[in-house]
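Hi there, hope your week has been kind to you so far. Thanks so much in advance, here it is.
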Amino acid sequence: MSTEHHPVPRLPGRRLAIALGLAGALALAVTAPAAALAPPDDSSSLSWGRTHVYDDGLAVTVAPPSAFTPGDTSAGHRAGYQAVAWKVTLKNGTPKAFKTSLVAVYAKYGPAGERAERVFDSANGIGSDFEGSISRGRSATVTYVFDIPRAAVGSLDIEAVPHVFDYEGTHWTGPLNARTGQN
């Protein structure tokens, strides 16, 4: 067994790659809008119909959920589950047009926060996301439908993220109850 030490050769460009990675992360942090860096006004979730306004003036509202009956050609709906629809509205109070290409909406259910499957039903106009941009001072609304086990409609959580890179998500929670159309 040899006790002689042999240095490990360094890979060329390793320092450059690390420096570029750090520079990129720093650039993202510096160029992110203030709305993204500011924590939400309230750390708890909102109730249905309430509006969350970000520091830059962008407002998000999630209407109370309603039961939805998918058509025969829908995708994502399973027997024994309740399709639940939410209208998500973005109102642009920012100084310029708001691009909606990176809006994300997620739904969870039950005490463990299990992920709900999205329902697509083109025959009933369900499944499209926000498109294009929203002019300053204007609003846009999209209906999202998720499949929830019937036993879990008492504990729903929907999260809306206006732009996955620039904004924190906001949660709305509550049940699907008789006033909102539960079957």
